[in-house]
Write a structure and sequence with these properties.
Blueprint: E1 7-10, H1 14-70, H2 76-129, E2 132-134, E3 140-142, E4 160-162, E5 168-173, H3 175-179, E6 192-197, E7 200-209, E8 220-226, E9 239-242, E10 250-254, E11 263-267, E12 273-277, E13 279-284, E14 287-291, H4 321-325, E15 327-329, H5 332-343, H6 350-360, E16 364-366, H7 367-376
Antiparallel strand pairs: 1-2, 3-4, 5-8, 6-7, 6-9, 7-8, 10-14, 11-12, 13-14, 15-16
Length: 379
C-alpha cells in the first residue's frame, strides 16, 4: 500500500540534469546578449541624435553662405563646400538611422532568444522532475514488473496503482432496458445499484454509459460508482441489481404466456380464446413486465402451446383451483380399502405408512395418493 505523494519509481537523472545545466547556460548567454543589445540600442540612439544636430548645423552654415552671396559676399567655392558638407551630414544621419534599426532588430532577436531559452530550461526542469514518479493518490500496487537498473522503454507500463475505495462496476444491458434509465431529456439517471459477490455486497449509483458500441457487441455498457467496495477487487464478476423508477399500470406475467410478436391469449366469452397485444417493458428470468393498456383486468393463458389459438374453447384452471381439484373426498368403504392396502404393504417403510395413513384420515385426500395406492393394488 502507498500513500499519496510517495515515491514509486526513480529513473537515472544524469542525462536529464546535464540537459538542464546546458539549458541554464544557454539562458544565461541569451540574457547577456539581451543586455548588450539594450546598451547598443542606447548608443545607436545617441549617435543618431548627434548626427542630426551636426546635419542641422551644416544646413544652417549653408544657409548663411547663400544669404551672403545675395549681398555680393563670399565665393562660389565656399558655397559649394558648404553644400557638400550639408549633404554629407544628411548621409551620416541616414547611416545612423540604419544602425539604430539594426540595434532594435538585435534587441528583438535577443528577447526572442531569452524566451526560447527559458522555455527550453522549463522543459529540461520538467524532465528532471519526471525522473521521480510519485503516487497521485493512495492505493495499492499491482502488476509491478520493473527491477533496479533495468531499461524502461517509451510508453512502457510499469504497473497499476489501484484505489480500492474508488472502484467502478461495468455491466451491459439491452437497448430497451437502457431507455428506462433515461429521463425525459435523454440524460442518464443516477439510479442506485446493489452489487453482490459471494457473501459480500456494496451499494453505489450509476455514473455514466459507454460512449460507443464496440464491433460485435450490442446493447449499452453502463458504469456504476460504488460507495464502498470492501472485499471487492478489480476483475471480480459480480451480480448487479438496479433500483429502477417505479412503474405504473404494469403486470408481471410468465414469459411462456408471451408470443414471439408480443401477443397473448385472452380468455373471452364462453371461455373461448382471443388474442391481445402487450408492450414488454422488462424481461427478468422466467417472467416479463408488460404494460397493460386496455387489457387491464383480463385473464390470459399462462402457458401457451401450439394447440392453443384464437376461437378455441378451453376449461380454465385458475390459480388456486388446481390445488382444490387435487383433493377429493372418499367414501367410508373406499377409505377402508385404502387403509388396508397401506397396512398390508410389506415394502412400505413405517414412516411412509404413518404419513399416508395420516393423509387418508383427513376429510379430503390428495387424488395423487389415491391413484398410486389403487394402481399398486390393481384397482
Amino acid at each position: 500500500a502507498v500513500s499519496a505523494g510517495d515515491v514509486l519509481v526513480r529513473f537515472d537523472p544524469r542525462d536529464a540534469e546535464a540537459a538542464r545545466d546546458l539549458a541554464v547556460s544557454d539562458r544565461d548567454a541569451a540574457r547577456l546578449e539581451k543586455g548588450e543589445a539594450e546598451r547598443a540600442l542606447v548608443l545607436a540612439r545617441d549617435d543618431l541624435a548627434a548626427a542630426e544636430v551636426q546635419a542641422d548645423l551644416r544646413d544652417k552654415a549653408q544657409a548663411r553662405l547663400e544669404d551672403l552671396a545675395t549681398k555680393g559676399l563670399g565665393t562660389a567655392a565656399d558655397r559649394e563646400a558648404a553644400a557638400l558638407a550639408a549633404s554629407s551630414a544628411i548621409q551620416g544621419v541616414l547611416t545612423r538611422r540604419q544602425s539604430l534599426a539594426e540595434a532594435e532588430a538585435r534587441l528583438d532577436r535577443a528577447v526572442s532568444a531569452v524566451s526560447r531559452a527559458e522555455i527550453t530550461l522549463a522543459e529540461a526542469e520538467r524532465r528532471v522532475a519526471d525522473t521521480i514518479l510519485r503516487a497521485e493518490f493512495s492505493g495499492v500496487l499491482a502488476g509491478v514488473s520493473v527491477v533496479e537498473g533495468g531499461l524502461v522503454g517509451r510508453n512502457e507500463k510499469l504497473g497499476d496503482l489501484i484505489d480500492p475505495e474508488a472502484l467502478e462496476v461495468a455491466f451491459r444491458i439491452s437497448t430497451g432496458e437502457f431507455a428506462s434509465f433515461l429521463d425525459e431529456a435523454g440524460a442518464l439517471l443516477p439510479l442506485r445499484v446493489r452489487v453482490e459477490f459471494a457473501a459480500m455486497s456494496a451499494e453505489g449509483r450509476i455514473e455514466r454509459a459507454g460512449a460507443a458500441v464496440a464491433a460485435g457487441e450490442s446493447g449499452r455498457q453502463v458504469f456504476a460508482v460504488l460507495d464502498r467496495a470492501e472485499g471487492l477487487k478489480p476483475g471480480d464478476f459480480v451480480s448487479v441489481f438496479v433500483t429502477e423508477p417505479e412503474l405504473h399500470g404494469v403486470a408481471e406475467i410468465p414469459a411462456a404466456a408471451l408470443g414471439p410478436d408480443g401477443s397473448v391469449l385472452l380468455v373471452g366469452a364462453e371461455d373461448r380464446l382471443e388474442t391481445g397485444q402487450l408492450t414488454v417493458l422488462r424481461r427478468q428470468g422466467d417472467t416479463v413486465i408488460v404494460s397493460l393498456g386496455d387489457l387491464a383486468g383480463r385473464e390470459i393463458v399462462a402457458g401457451r402451446t401450439p394447440l392453443l389459438g384464437p376461437g378455441i374453447r378451453i376449461r380454465p384452471v385458475r390459480e388456486g383451483a388446481a390445488e382444490e381439484a387435487s383433493m377429493i373426498p372418499l367414501t367410508p368403504e373406499r377409505r377402508a380399502a385404502l387403509v388396508a392396502i397401506v397396512e398390508g404393504s410389506a415394502r412400505m417403510p413405517e414412516d411412509a405408512k404413518a404419513r399416508v395413513l395420516a393423509e387418508l384420515g383427513r376429510d379430503l385426500v390428495p387424488a395423487e395418493t389415491v391413484r398410486r395406492l389403487e394402481a399398486r393394488n390393481g384397482g
